[in-house]
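Below: protein 1.
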Amino acid sequence: MSFKDYLQRNGYSAATICTYEKYLQVFIDWLGQELLHPDAVTYTELLDCMRWLQAKGCSRATVKAVLGVLRHFFDWRIAAGVGGHNPAAGVYIKGIPRRLPAGMLEMDTLQALYRDYCEQYGSTLCGRVILGLLVFQGLTVREIRRLEITDVQLREGMLQVRSGRAYNGRRLKLEAVQMRQLERCVRAHGELSKPAMRGMRLLNGHYLSGEVSKLLRALKKLHPAIKSVQQIRGSVITEWLHCYNVRQVQYMAGHKYASSTQRYQLTGLEDLQAQLEQHHPIEIGLRTHGDDHTK
């Protein structure tokens, strides 16, 4: 599988692929100049390449674009079985915000939050279903919105999550505590044959944003540390990484790239701070998230 094939399979347009190949060729030229093999590239060599680009007069936007292509390039090498690491994962241009996990919650806390919500807001079926899908399957709101009735496989205790441009499809286990809520949600649509149910949304997408907002307000009352649904998903992925390897969690989270999963490979805020302090911004303005001072 070539790099072009990899990009095509991940839904990139012909124009985008053409641009990516041009940026990649810049990196390949640098490798040839330095007599380096891609496997020999580490964080240090990557920074040398970025300095070289700046010395050639490349703008910060161009350096950022090349860096983004290299993240895809090294992900492709891992997927193709010809590379074992992605040195570009976690390296970003200073001034470009990066969303890293913060304020992670432990699984025990999330499960307690689910129980408390179900007890205190027993009449809100939609909210309980959404919270269960967030806490136990780590879905995004977009994925929840796209769920169809037939995706909930109650007999098998499984949930089919459909793929999208930004994420992969997967099949995830349902937890016993959420089965009753999901069964009630499915039955709310009435007794329909499977052909009739195809294409029918599990939840009303038109009202879902409002339901998520109400859910968040209720959760913040129960647990002031709750900030967003993204925080809940991030917490779930972080907890998964304590139990499974990166490839398994990449599948469970629906990430297209291993580097997306590796961002969550932290054990808590202390580990996050240690990572942020490990590397400082250098002259060309590269950074790993969070450092606001310069040398």
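Below: protein 2.
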Amino acid sequence: MLPLSPGALLTLALLAGTAGAADPPRASECSAAPLIDLMAKPAELVPGVCVNPGAPTTFVFGAPLPSGAVVLSDNRSVDFAQGGAFVTVYPKRSFLPGERVKLTVRFGDGAAPEEAAFWLVGHAEQGVRSVEVFRSARSADELKREAAEARAEASQCQKEKARLLAERTKLGGLMGAAWLERTEEIHSKDLLEGLVQHPGNALTVEEATSYSNKGSIAVRLLLRNFGTETWTATEAMLTNSMGVDVVLSLWRDAAISSGSSGFVVVGVEKSSEQLGCPCSLKLREEQQARAVTMKGVTFPF
């Protein structure tokens, strides 16, 4: 075999490069799907659309496009025509498989997104004839409102997270009581003898004990349900002699069913001196249809 000249070697190399360029692009580079949803993809992701050299592809939008809405990154290998709510691109026959040209379309209705971009990717086999572009247009005010709502929701979640973390660091039960008494003894007082129960109460108070510690008070009640319906305490309010209401936190094991008794504990982070008792205490269920009210609530000092 005769040795090849340098010119022949160069010719073979160029032919080999052309053959490699003719290979179809990877499937991930473009799609021949007839629908593109702009809202279903990240804004920074530019979708690839498979086009055939010498064959037109039409992009159909849901609203009329303004004049001069189309920009091509390379007008030498792709032509286009704009009309109404569509854009038709014409890849020239010289448009090689794997070659890419960016198509950018600007919308004129003032809604978001303001524009959309697509990669036109040459493909020897696949090529979509028509692509419907779905764009859920939203006004700038709507987007601002959604962003503000998202920020408010995130802020509320952060606050709730902080509250839960703080609660996890608090001791409960007997350990909590022992921790409180490290600086001051917990005082208690039997209230039942001096308690005045409202005659229309839904439940009867069988036991009543008040507690005080530095900066906090609590009342523990044992309630008997003589009615025919289950009762569940959901709200507690303490009213002092001046008519000032204080909302109390409430703890209970479960609803108190007919004919049974159950404990309810209410309290607040306030000192007994701040409350100005004797006070009245009112427990209510969710719909406030049935309540338990008592007067003569005091706290030990």
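The radius of gyration is 38 Å.
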